[in-house]
Design a protein that fits this description.
By secondary structure, this protein is α/β, with parallel strands linked by helices. It has three domains: 62 residues, no CATH class; 110 residues, Carbamate kinase, CATH 3.40.1160.10; 92 residues, Archaeosine Trna-guanine Transglycosylase, Chain: A, domain 4, CATH 2.30.130.10. It has eleven helices and eleven strands.
């Protein structure tokens, strides 16, 4: 932090250390508190320097790498640009360390990032794979992301000037809403419900709500208001806020909406997950 302070001293800019754990962003209340703190610092002209809180980051709540954390923070503060610096010039058609003829990819548009990850280079924490994933996540949230070479002088200045540097991940024209971004990228499901292919199509392709009648099985223990995963064939494809806890859902899954009140004695909602509280995950 002293190094950051020295770097910003010439511009008389104050910096502040912000340490976050996975739970700070996975819990909706703490997520909003972190957002308010960050936005207040920026409004006061203070530059937040964010890092994972390693003193409390046990495996269950770790982000895993600062690339993923940076993408979440970019969404948290409504950033318009995310820059991920590495020791390579950007994303290539193949691993440039092994294939001399590999070409730099100047731009990645919607849906193409995942296909490039396998050739991006060495895997592992902080490697190109995690940077591509973080950049694609930011783009899905409507944030332009650039993966560029941080060892070359002038890289940041060139990017901010709008020059073509590194690999640009174009932001989605119709990004996820803030609540859905939190559900898709930051939340941690407390349970999972399984549905059939028809229900998946209704949720993922038609934008429908999930009714208890569409649920085939329930796993995990959760309460109303918790985040749960939605899976088909064992693969999670969506997350949302449950209107029923797992105990009640066990009683009403597969049943029609009109039967809920007679089974439970009350009917808090027609839907298990309302479409406004559902985020469909990209493969």
């Amino acid at each position: 932090m002293r190094a950051w302070e020295r770097a910003f001293e010439p511009s008389k800019t104050t910096v502040a250390q912000v340490l976050l754990s996975g739970d700070d962003l996975r819990d909706r209340g703490r997520y909003l508190n972190a957002r308010n703190t960050m936005l207040t610092l920026l409004r006061l002209g203070v530059v937040p320097v964010v890092n994972e809180n390693d003193t409390v980051a046990v495996e269950e709540i770790k982000f895993g790498d600062n690339d993923g954390l940076s993408s979440l923070v970019a969404g948290l503060v409504d950033a318009t640009l995310l820059v991920l610096l590495t020791d390579q010039d950007g994303l290539f058609t193949d691993d440039p360390r092994k294939v001399p003829g590999a070409a730099l990819i100047a731009e990645v548009r919607s849906g193409k990032a995942a296909a490039r990850v396998g050739k991006a280079g060495p895997k592992g924490t902080g490697g190109m794979e995690s940077k591509v994933r973080a950049a694609a996540q930011a783009a899905e949230g409507g944030i332009c992301a650039v993966v560029a070479n941080g060892t070359k002088p002038g890289t940041l200045t060139a990017i901010l000037a709008g020059e073509s540097v590194g690999t640009r991940f174009a932001p989605e024209d119709k990004p996820l809403a803030k609540r859905r971004q939190w559900l898709a990228f930051a939340s941690k499901p407390k349970g999972t419900v399984s549905v059939d292919a028809g229900a998946r199509a209704a949720l993922a392709e038609m934008g429908k709500s999930l009714l208890p009648s569409g649920v085939k099985s329930v796993s995990g223990s959760f309460e109303a208001g918790d985040v749960i995963g939605v899976a088909e064939g064992g693969a999670e494809f969506a997350r949302g806020l449950a209107n029923y806890g797992s105990a009640d859902l066990q009683k009403i899954m597969g049943r029609k909406t009109a039967e809920i009140e007679s089974i439970l004695g009350s009917k808090p909602a027609d839907e298990l997950i309302h479409r406004d509280n559902l985020a469909v995950l990209k493969p």
